[in-house]
Amino acid sequence: MTGRRSLSLIWRWPALLAVLSVFGLLSALLGQEGLWLPLSWAALATPLVVAAICVGRSRG
Fold first, then answer.
1. Which of 31, 35, 41, 60 has the fewest CB atoms within 10 Å, counting from its CB?
2. How far apart are CA 20 and CA 45, in angstroms?
């Protein structure tokens, strides 16, 4: 068994992706024009890209 990790190390990236997703959802709902739309697309696409990278690494 390898060394134990603290909870902050384990949950750092999932919490960051959750905050980014919430920001993306709120910016898509509240900001209907201007810079808000690209920000919401980027914020909502980032967790999907990260998931695709993780799946790709686990299979290859």
1. 60
2. 10
Structure tokens at 5: 């990790």
The answer to whether 44 touches 19, Cβ cutoff 8 Å, is: no
Helix-strand-coil split of the chain, %, nearest 5: 80, 0, 20
Q: Is the pLDDT of residue 1 over 70?
A: no
CA distance 6 to 46: 25
Distance CA 8, CA 32 (A): 35
pLDDT per position as a tens digit, 3-53: 688 888 889 999 999 999 999 999 999 988 899 999 999 999 999 999 999
